Fold these 3 entries.
Entry 1:
Amino acid sequence: MSQLTVIRSAATAIMDKAEPVKNPLGETIALSALGQFQTVDNINAQIGIWQCEPGKLRRQPQPHREFIHILSGWCIFTPEGEEPVELHAGDCATFPANCQGVWEIKETLRKVFCLF
């Protein structure tokens, strides 16, 4: 039997309480929140919505790969040892397992993510 996991109305979904990001860089400490976070045990995945206010932070290395779809806002992500990449509303991206780098959130960013 398959398990269908759904994120509903991601662009307008109510988010959990915003908290300071775990790895801030610089004086501005961005707040971030999760929404509709779900673990899908049978395929070892996690999905949800992540929202972050402007600021700069180090990306926490994940043992999983990640797929994202930016719903609103924009940022610059600089993978460690690589060139910066601008990501805007409507963009999708994948991150390899253990990817490290720096997020520079320019305008409050909301993304749907899947760690797999």
Entry 2:
Amino acid sequence: MKITSRSRAAFAIIAATTLAVSLSACSKDSDTPAAPGSNAGGGVGVDLPRADSDFWNAYAKYVPAKAKDLGVTVTSTTNSQNDVQKLLTNVDSLVAQGAKALVMAPQDTGAIASKLDELAGKKIPVVSVDTRPDSGSVYMVVRADNRAYGTKACEFLGEKLGGKGKVIEFQGSLSSINGRDRSEAFKECMTKKFPDIKVFEEPTEWEGAKAQAALETRLTTDPDIKGVYMQAGGVFLDPTLQVLKQRGLLVPPSDPKHIFIISNDGIPQEFDAIRKGEIDATVSQPADTYAGIGLYWAKQALAGVTPKEGPTDHGSIVIKLPNGFEDQLPAPLVTKDNVDDASLWGNAKS
């Protein structure tokens, strides 16, 4: 998806203007009145997926501020700690505490289906942020195009390596649609466009320790690795930099020993690493807008609004899914050329 200056401007003012004005901002049929028996006026329960990721910790900090901007009452917040069983327990707890709509980010997108259908039967709408459940009824999914993440990473590394060499890929959990989308798109692109690049696929379950061990092993067996694709900078950045520093490989791009690195997330720590020349790029997925748009759609659901496909007023596109709708948000590639762009959430002043 092409990111224009107009789209970035829309993101920058979303909390202060478009979202806070009314329920009519995002959907083409947003003047739909509340459905009979809807949960209009109810509260929203929020489950945070984990606390071991800088990206998700940033998202967690945005939730209360965005809720205030939108006039949304958050009944309670839980953290499922990357454990689907805890998520199921947390969901029941949030409902018991009076939540009439839920915002969650299930990390295992295949194991949540029955709970989603159970909630739909109770007329409790669910907004899934960042991840798209494989099945089970959802009111709205709020996420960026994760296949584009993998493709952008492939093209960036392929060009930097001149189409030849070795690359290690830290795959996210393949039980997650995000991990599968990024991995499949990266592989398809490499196979088609850069067949002379050898890719070492390393499953990590989104765990930094597994990525660190994989990198140490690969640098021992294949010391000529010249590229790294980190599918989540929030958990992989620090372990990766530690290994490279220990091996004397944390050097600027001008040094022949430099290993080109592209990440996904867009956290401030990645931006600092880009400025220092430690990594080369990331794809910024908007933690602030994930929080704001996720709560926005929860508010829409409580008002009985039925989403419709098409462009939105915040620079995204809503598409129809077999099990609901998806609001596809843009996610720009960030390099040294645009790392200081004030519209990027990773540059926001706290």
Entry 3:
Amino acid sequence: MTTEQAAVLEKKDGVAVITLNRPEVKNCCNNAMATALQDIMDEIDEDRNCFVAVIHGAGGNFSTGADLKEAASGVKRTRLRRGGFGCFVHPLRKPLIAAVEGYAVGGGFELCLTADMVVAAANAKFGLPEVRHNLVAVGGGLFRLPKKIPCNIAFEMALTGKIYDADFLRPYGILNRVVEPGTTLESAMELARSLLVNGPTALAASKRIMSKAFEWQELEAWENQMPIAQVALNSKDRVEGLKAFAAKRAPVWSGE
């Protein structure tokens, strides 16, 4: 891994590990990082051997959000197909776990909100400080956060612009694990590996259906879920899962 790579992808036994790699600026996201993240998300989505992904930051911080110095210099933000940070509008289709050390604020916090699970260090810091600069958190934070925690707490976070520690967020269920500093990646990888025993096409389908939970009314959900579920139910992995169950052995997933 080199500092010239703004974001780095490594693949480890079915788990894709994404590293935000601008530690000298606390992994704030410039055009290069956003473009790299979009390319990485595309690659993971298309790779049948990658079933789960973990995203973390190099150098002791997750991300402090958008690179405001780049913006202030007059550099125009690259318009990306998947939205800001290369994933805000179209997040990863496969399960994504955020491993948070240090600061996850602004767009860094919004990146956590695109993840399906969050493992945080006990001393991690979270927040949406955009209003303090007369900016607006347009990376999804203003509508994703109220879906994950009580609305009044989401209002407090967004409208005060304060930075909060893991203990503040822990009671609201937004954090799956709170662990010792320096161990979040290890803990997130352990969580990721616990998913690998399950069928990958079923994992992807389950994530997609659950992501629609706030969009569908219950009656339409019964109908809308089926085309998504059929991808898994008609897959080779479903056949393998049933054969493995009958033979009392561990399944060998193919992602097909």
